[in-house]
Amino acid sequence: MIKVHVPATSANLCIGYDCLGLALDLYNHFTFEKSDALEITGCDPQFQNEDNLVVVAFKRVCQYLKVDFPSFHLHIDAQIPVSSGLGSSASCLVAGIAGANAWFEANLDLQSMVTLATQLEGHPDNVAPAILGQASISYFYKDKVISTIVSCHGWHGLVMMPDYQVNTKKARKVIPSSIEHDKACLQVAHALTFMQALQNKDEDKLLASCMDYLHEPYRRQLIKEYDDIHQYCFERNFPMWISGSGPTMMAISIKEENIRNLYLWMKENYPNIQCHFVTIDQKGVSVDYE
């Protein structure tokens, strides 16, 4: 029996559209066992077939390794909410790749796994941190993905999940095709500052760098609670952002008290929004054998 554990992720991190991501200590668990036929349990019946993203990714590794696709029983224990902006789909792709790697004892290196997952996902900001852990910067170069791990720990976070969904295609359509040159320069400066501040636990610089020009000014209109929560956090000098394409939002702080107070404020003002305390996952995808 092979057990694969994949962390949730927060993609974009405000200023890193499609290239920055952060792994969180909320997990999906996947079990692979030998079986006479493909069997999938633990998920909605509509996903209990070969179109399941875990199976799709497993097959992609089979093609890459030039081996036959085996039969197995896949059981999914999902703790990451679906279509919430926390990398649920990415976790399935990563699980399929890691599961196949373990099944065939292929010893794929992490960067190859990131590349395979990105080829399926389309962009690396969710799959890279799910594989690598911590925070990561990733982009395509020629036919592979280049990833850099940014070591970070000690941050306390709160993910805030409204009780509705934001369609990813709609969220991409609201983004303009170009921005002004001066804003592009600021975007680069903010991204560089953000990653160093995250690593150095410099909350003041992290807050100052959380000013995006690529997607948040346009996607915020799709999340009706965004402006109020954003104002609360920034008035108290800690950052928050849209996780992925939303509607989930995330706030982080070095000071646990800030996050605890935000949680209490959310419960009072937005009781219908689910809130979860999180920290930064340190190791990414992991595999156990039984």
Structural notes for this entry:
By secondary structure, the chain is of the alpha+beta class. The chain folds into two domains: 2-151 and 281-289, Ribosomal Protein S5, domain 2 (2-Layer Sandwich); 156-278, Alpha-Beta Plaits (2-Layer Sandwich), CATH 3.30.70.890. It has ten helices and eleven strands. The protein starts with a strand and ends with a strand. The mean pLDDT is 95.
Low-confidence stretches: none
Number of domains: 2
Ends distance: 5 Å
Which strand-content bin applies to the residues?
Answer: 15-25%
Order of helices and strands: EEEHEHHHEEEHHHHHEEHEE
Task: Please report the total strand number as a whole number.
Answer: 11
The largest β sheet comes out as:
7 strands, mixed
- How many helices? The count is 10
Radius of gyration: 19 Å
CATH class of the largest domain: Alpha Beta
Query: What's the CATH architecture name of the largest domain?
Result: 2-Layer Sandwich
Q: Determine the structural class based on helices, strands and strand pairing.
A: alpha+beta
- Choose one word for the global shape: globular
How is the CATH topology of the largest domain named? Answer: Ribosomal Protein S5, domain 2
Task: State the share of residues found in helices, binned by percent.
Answer: 25-40%
Mean pLDDT: 95
Domain GHMP kinase C-terminal: 196-271
Binding site for ATP: 81-91
Organism: Floccifex porci
Function: Catalyzes the ATP-dependent phosphorylation of L-homoserine to L-homoserine phosphate.
